[in-house]
Specification:
- The complex is a heterotrimer of chains A (about 650), B (about 180) and C (about 160).
- Chain B contains 6 helices and 7 strands.
- Chain B is α/β, with parallel strands linked by helices.
- The termini of chain C are far apart.
- The chains are: A alpha+beta (about 650), B alpha/beta (about 180), C mainly alpha (about 160).
- Chains in contact: A-B, A-C, B-C.
- Strand 1 (about 520-525) of chain A pairs antiparallel with strand 1 (about 25) of chain C.
Chain lengths: ~650, ~180, ~160
Amino acid sequence: MTPEIGHFAIILAFCVSVLQSLFGLVGYARGYAKWMSSVRRTSYLIFFLTSVGFACLAISFLTNDFSVLNVASNSNSQLPWPYRLAATWGSHEGSLLLWVLMLTGWMAAVARFSRGIPTEMISLILGVMATVAIGFYLFMLLTSNPFDRLLPPAADGRDLNPLLQDPGMVIHPPMLYMGYVGFSVVFAFAIAALISGRLDTTWARWSRPWTTVAWAFLTIGIALGSWWAYYELGWGGWWFWDPVENASFMPWLCGTALMHSLLVTEKRGSFKIWTVLLAIITFSLSLLGTFLVRSGVLTSVHAFATDPERGVFILGFLVVVIGTSLLLFAWRAPKVGLGGKFQTISRESALLANNVLLVVAAASVLLGTLYPLFLDALGFGKISVGPPYFDAVFFPIMAPAMFLMGVGPLARWKDSPVPDLMQKLKWSFIVAVVSALILPFVMGDWNVLVSIGLLLALWIALASIVNLSTRLKQIRSGRTVTLIRALSSIPRSYYGMLLAHIGVAVFIVGVTLVNGYEVEKDVKMSIGDTVSMGSYTIQLDSLEDLTGPNYDGVEGTLSVYKGERLVEVMYPQKRMYTVQQMPMTEAAIDTGFTRDLYISLGEPLNDGSWVVRVYLKPFVDWIWGGCFLMALGGIFAVSDRRYRKAGSSSAAATSAP
Amino acid sequence: MKVSKFLIPLVVFLGVSVFLFKGLSLNPREVPSPLIDKPAPAFSLPLLHENGSTLSTNDMRGQVWLLNVFASWCGPCLEEHPIIVDFSERGVIPVLGLNYKDNPVNAKRWLERHGDSYSSVVVDLDGRSGLDYGVYGVPESFLIDGDGIIRYKKIGPLSQADIEADILPLVDKYKR
Amino acid sequence: MNLPSILLALLLFAHSPFLASEEARPLAEDPVLEERVKAISYELRCLVCQNQTIADSNAGLAIDLRNQVRDMLKRGMSDTDIREFMVARYGDFVLYNPPVKNTTVLLWLGPLLMLVIAGVVAIRVIRSRSKSSASQDLADADINRARVMLAESDEKRS
């Protein structure tokens, strides 16, 4: 019964979405107040129904109901229950249900937390979101129904892909989807602005918090995915420029640009047309990502196994949604006025440059990802575009953007005299350059790429400190204010910005140092053998057989010594998952602030020894630490009530930095 | 015209969509062979059935022939095998079997069980010859003409349609 | 050596946790060569895998190709020779670093082109915004004065 209830709930949700779309959009067009005011309630209803549907599927997984095709294909009775739960979204159908759950969740949130927004706008916004939801419900119900029955029921399931049986699998997709899908809110705001013609600083103030929260979730989602790949795949890689990774990274890049563009629109009323277009583009990239992962058009480790027929449906949906949005944009954008003026060197122009670089970076990633498809479709044969291309193209574009991160926050709105900027940043630059030249020697050998990376990171960090101290000076000039007082008078949104920017600096340090100085050793080890790694000596103590809930294998015990002192004992495993007969290596990782020690078991050799791979990865956790700080900065900023204050009668441009 | 520049995003998007649509009918995993119309890589490999003897590509000069790469451990090879057997028995052109990265004992047993109408079967134990031919999966088949030029490659199981529509016309074209 | 120092030496060794243990031998016969094998392998695509390099994959073909690369390096072939070898058999698809040809010109120049175009547009926007600054400021000033006057007159009335 449960699957049927879930199925029915989804059908109902679809129907109510059609109603909401009608009420919202037609209600606005005709001025039907009753229709417009009902969309908040229908949003709650749709979210409730979708949650019921999702819960039913989850229950089917948790109770091992193998009469449901999806459960039989993706789960197993021996699968531990957290993974049975995660298997709910481990398949194409299930993840679609997660997508639409997130979408309706955001929709309900907008309905709940938008008291300051006039009813006509809310009507449009929620109407647009419901329209997007309609497409997903239709897609699910017509081609990818997670509630399809398997009769007669399977005796047991085919098990979840062992690669996905991991805590990371439980969290990564929900976080990622919260982000991806969260951009639908600012998209809906943008469409509402285009339709209503109300595109002003107030609109930007409403949109910004929603964008920032979605961005923070996406940052965490991508970081989790990267971290998961690092410890799960067994060779310590953390980013592969795989099409599906790119599909999540492009909305992130544009979302970052969008956050900054919204800032300008809110504070100065400028870039309105560009911001609206960027909002459409960002969500379009989310939708495009959904297409790429499920259509079979690109090859990826992450891709769901689906067929081109479903691809046609999604593509059709994409063309309708994005095409209509862009058509609307072309029609209505010219009617939007231009905003405030600014000089060539000003915060506005710095943020414009930031946007240009981020969007070109995203476009380059898109170009590289789709190029093989372009050539093949034109009959020019098949090529591959991989990390060598993306690395070569991405970093040169981002480097100036990172450099600007030091300048932008210090630049004044409207006009920022260059001598003033240079005077403030002179010492930061000098210290950064000198340190960047010297530090590589401390780490090992000198390397130009490491130097550049460290220069950028130090530059951002130092400029942020200068920014804070300049601001403190301003507050305390001419008055006696204690440091504590001064610090606490600065709004949280400012600290959010600092934190996020410093997060970027931390991230750069992690990437730079791990790429520059990681060490790998592949050795043959018998019991008692040692291998040295930097200042560590690692000894293989024992190898024991191992049995898990749905796997068996071998576990190694390795002691790590620094000199004579025992530092850590590590337990890498080699598992064979019984149902899918898939071998997996579970690396043992000793996480440290300044380095990770990473050990994975390879294969047993004929003489009884084992292949063991040992890695020393300096500062690798700074990569994800940096991402976490970025997301935290975003959340900080949004938690500032001033950041969120919706529609008060304040005048347009203020110049407070 | 002010309107035109705002239409650029839409135009770009529609252009991309056309490619995405075309992409749906393409197979991103299928790798076309760069060896078409190029000389077939030479090999000289031991025969499966006659210990000590070898067969080389030179021995096949002067006639059009089909090279069929197969293995006993390969499922799709079993699928296509009846078609290979049938085609070979028709005697249109010789069909040479290349036993790829297999155990010769298993291969012999497999052929005994499922039919062996190859003109000869050669053994490529380590797959090096297969590599020269750009083999990346089994089964694969190559049509080679009298001058030793590869004229056609089929990735995956050969079907009757492939034989009628692709192979036979080429045989007619290159047979002297 | 006298007895006390021998005893002392034995005592010292006995404390080491590594008594009678061996340094593990590298898996590769020649680690230096292996570094080169790895470097090239990271650029070559595993054709049977779902988007992995032959360095990362454990598929049969990937192992074969890595062995082939190792052999070729031992025989003294250069990196370029090896890439050509692979391309001759598998086509450009096997290279993760797309070659620069007439069909990939747009790929390699694309980002730069986009940057240049975007940059030009951005500079134009900045120029136009800063030029009309003066006249706009005047208009703004007028509007503000008008607002102030209106507000004052409102106050007077109420």
